[in-house]
Design brief:
Number of helices: 13
Bound molecules: Phenylacetyl coenzyme A
Strand order of the largest sheet: 1-2
Structural class: mainly alpha
Radius of gyration: 21 Å
């Protein structure tokens, strides 16, 4: 059974593509070289398959766990319009989880196995969803910053070399774009509202800014004193799973988002933030990787709560899975009898 983590067979990490030793591997290499898609029935290196299962399943888990911080506000949305928008958004996240579990299943792993890995703690989900949504402005900040970061990361995944993942990402990105806009619009309403509402928006930006930068994952190279470095990027980029590195995406996000904060009249909580006219990019202060490691290790503000709620939802949904299975069996029997 597939387990999470860097479980790539020895020797394969240093091989750029399929290795070219067999006709199938040579074909894999040719598909990569032509920048075409690998499909489920194509031969693929074991490391490629495992890397995809790891990334796609972590992504699926993130979408599903990501419903919790926002779901927390559905009953307290300040108007019917805001409630309808939020409900639609949270439902979209569930849909994203489903497309992604389905894409992962094409790699020969079952959804049950993947869910089990999440529930037993061997699979990760995005660090960002372990932070609390304390005020209504947090819903705006999630849409603007978290969905904004998610789109930045996911647009290049539409060109991922694995067909089912790339195709799932195209639809997901369209929906994420609506999510980002509704978040920004919510922040704009608050920023143009009463002084208390503007302060609430600023407070949400203060709390979500740094965790949003952490979402992109560790640095590409070992630049930090604590040695945080992306382990998978190099190989994943050779396999054209990742098309743009963690740091490049983070920088793009900062460059796009800082002017948006200025338009809102809000201050990005980073005293080191400054425009560099020579590079054409914003420079920003150091990321607290200790906080990131701590959250990923399960010790963030809401990890225990998120997993408790996810386990309860799984247990409470057991009858639905049982009923769906019984129905499928009944239909299959009927169809067999009719044939
Ligand atoms: N949190 O070597 P790398 C969303 C782990 S969806 C936790 O750079 P990789 C929509 C990483 O897994 C948000 N762990 O890894 C939404 C690895 O550990 P492992 C999710 C993280 O895979 C909005 C280790 O660190 N998006 O927001 C994180 O090449 C609102 C080393 O890292 C995706 O999953 C993190 N932030 O690059 C929903 C997008 N970052 O597995 C609801 C697809 C890194 O060896 C509401 N995923 N780690 O144990 C990706 O693009 C990549 O997997 C990265 C990480 C970029 C996240």
């Amino acid at each position: 059974m597939y387990t999470q983590g860097l479980d790539i067979p020895k020797g394969e990490t240093s091989i750029p593509l399929g290795s070219g030793e067999s006709p199938e591997a040579a074909r894999f290499d040719a598909i990569m070289a032509a920048d075409e898609k690998i499909e489920p029935k194509d031969w693929m290196p074991e490391g490629y398959r495992k890397t995809l299962i790891r990334q796609i399943s972590q992504h699926a888990h993130s979408e599903v766990i990501g419903m919790q911080p926002e779901g927390n506000w559905i009953t307290r949305a300040p108007s019917l319009r805001r409630k309808a928008i939020l409900m639609a958004k949270v439902q979209d996240e569930a849909g994203h989880g489903l497309y992604l579990y389905s894409a992962a299943e094409t790699l020969g792993v079952s959804r049950d196995e993947l869910v089990e890995q999440l529930l037993n703690g061997s699979a990760k989900y995005s660090s960002i969803f372990n932070y609390p949504t304390l005020t209504w402005a947090d819903i705006g900040a999630i849409g603007w910053l978290v969905d904004g970061a998610a789109i930045m990361n996911q647009i290049p995944l539409c060109r991922c070399s694995y067909g089912p993942y790339a195709r799932a990402m195209i639809r997901i990105c369209k929906e994420e774009s609506f999510h980002q806009r509704q978040g920004y619009e919510l922040m704009l309403s608050l920023a143009r509202g009463t002084p208390e509402q503007k302060a609430m928006a600023q407070d949400a930006l203060n709390r979500w800014w740094w965790p949003s930068l952490m979402m992109f994952g560790p640095h590409d190279t070992k630049t930090d004193a604590d040695g945080m470095k992306s382990q998978h990027s190099e190989q994943s980029m050779r396999w054209r799973i990742k098309r743009v590195s963690n740091d490049e995406l983070r920088q793009k996000f900062v460059d796009v988002t800082v002017p948006q904060a200025e338009y809102l009249g809000l201050t990005v909580p980073d005293p080191d933030l400054k425009w560099n006219a020579e590079t054409g990019h914003y420079e920003f202060g150091p990321i607290d990787w200790e906080e990131f490691k701590n959250v990923v290790a399960g010790n963030g503000p809401c990890n225990a709560k998120r997993m408790k709620q996810r386990r309860a939802a799984h247990e409470n949904g057991a009858w639905v899975r049982k009923a769906a299975l019984a129905y499928a069996e009944k239909r299959a029997k009927r169809q067999a009898a009719a044939a």
